[in-house]
Amino acid sequence: MKKPHLTPQEINAHIHNTTTDADRERMDQHLRHCSLCRAQLQAEQTLKAGITNAIQRQVETIQPSQSMNFEAIVEKLEPRSPQLSLQHKFSGVSIIAGILLLALSFMRIGDNISSDSLPFLAYACFTLPIYTVSTSRNINTKQIGIILLSILLCLGIALLGLYEIYLIQLVSYRLTYFFSNDHWISAAVSSFSLMLAACGWVIAVIGNLDFQIAHRSDKNAWRLLRATLLVEGVILLLPLII
Amino acid sequence: MQDEILHLIERWKNGDQRAAETLYMTYRDDAFRLSCSFLNEPQSAEEVVQDAFTYALMNIHNYKPEKASFKTWLFTITMSRCKDQLRRKRPPLYSLVEWFERSQKEPIDQAPLPEGALNSKEMQTMLWELVQRLSPKLREALILRYWGEFTYQEISEIAHCPLTTAQSRVRLAYDKLRKQLHPGWLEGFQKELL
């Protein structure tokens, strides 16, 4: 019985050396007797060699500009990893601050709102060490628990924003009332600030999430988290002052 | 060569900046070519490569020589950043008329042959345009294999995909290219190879 000719897929696999040994042996056996397939294979090999040649020549014409040199990155290489040590330092401080804030929250200082804010502030402080661990470059899939915990904490930070929207409304009411002494004007201003804060929250949550995912383990991501926590901290402390 | 590179890595680990510079100069051009071939934008490619080098040199302690060569490791970082760059890029906006005109022209069934004698430079440019039209995954596999002459194992590591996927991507990329080439291209290549 006459053996069937090699299919285009088989020839493609043959010229790219992606066949199994058994298939290769079978194909070679067929090629020994079939001039048609041999010619086809030869043509494909020539085409592949031509394409390879053209691609290689084209890529070799690509040259970097003069500005692309080692000096341009050397500055970034200088501090071998101070960012990480700074991050670890911050994490240590934030754990202590978190414990202190939690203790203070039990002592019920200030008005109710101020006291209620303290556990949230403590929570924000605890997110920092978890973030540090979960974004460390050496993390592996076995530490999935830490990654999940970090995701939960990030969600917690986002939800914390909702409580802060309420705080912003309250503080803006108090502040306006202090200057205007009018309940209705204060209510209007506080409602407006509520709307603004809600918009800001949506933008901050989406923007933060997108940036953190795109720049994981990057010092800019760490800077953004630091700024976020600072802003959250200030908002949480506002009822204590105003 | 590999021993020299390992020696340079050790020196850099010990804080020798000249070793880092030598490593940079050894792979800069190739990393840029790979990045530029993939992104087709020299400016973005430059940023990507500088960023990849910074990351690689700062995290040199993460490099495991027993797993891959330094070149493969560096190119893995470079390609990963290239893909991030591609993801960040917004899709271009076209007017509806422009889109309609484009859709009338595309897909080009077969790349025409230059008039008269085959000019290798023209063939090269036309072929490169076809390569740029491939999907990023196929383009990546094809460039790594055809230009970089990486093994399928290395391609699978750089592209973060199984070995068989790397193989099939190269085959598919070739298949897509050859389908768009006029049969006369073979003659041109034959003349050129002689």
The shape of chain A is elongated
What low-confidence regions of chain A span 5 or more consecutive residues with pLDDT below 50?
Answer: 79-83
Q: Major β-sheet of chain A, in short?
A: none
Question: What amount of the residues of chain B lies in strands?
Answer: under 5%
Q: What is the 3D form of chain B?
A: globular
- Show unreliable segments of chain B: none
Strand content of chain A: under 5%
Could you tell me the radius of gyration of chain A in angstroms?
32 Å
Radius of gyration of chain B: 20 Å
Distance between the termini of chain A: 96 Å
Spatial separation of the terminal alpha carbons of chain B: 32 Å
The greatest inter-chain interface is formed by: A-B, 40 and 51 residues
Count of DSSP-assigned helices of chain A: 9
Task: Classify the helix fraction of chain A into a percent range.
Answer: over 70%
Number of strands of chain B: 0
Helix content of chain B: over 70%
Estimate the mean pLDDT confidence of chain B. Answer: 84
Number of helices of chain B: 10
- Oligomeric status: heterodimer
Number of strands of chain A: 0
Task: Report mean pLDDT of chain A, rounded to a whole number.
Answer: 81
Protein model, in words:
The complex is a heterodimer of chains A (242) and B (194). Chain A has 242 residues and is mainly alpha-helical. Helices cover 81% and strands 0% of the residues of chain A. Chain A contains nine helices and no strands. Chain A has helices at 8-15, 21-33, 35-60, 71-77, 82-107, 112-134, 144-180, 183-214, 219-241. With 194 residues, chain B is an all-alpha fold. Helix content of chain B is 74%, strand content 0%. Chain B has ten helices and no strands. The radius of gyration of chain B is 20 Å and the shape is globular. Chain B starts with a helix and ends with a helix. The mean pLDDT of chain B is 84. At the A-B interface, helix 1, helix 3 and helix 4 of A face helix 2, helix 3, helix 6, helix 7 and helix 9 of B.
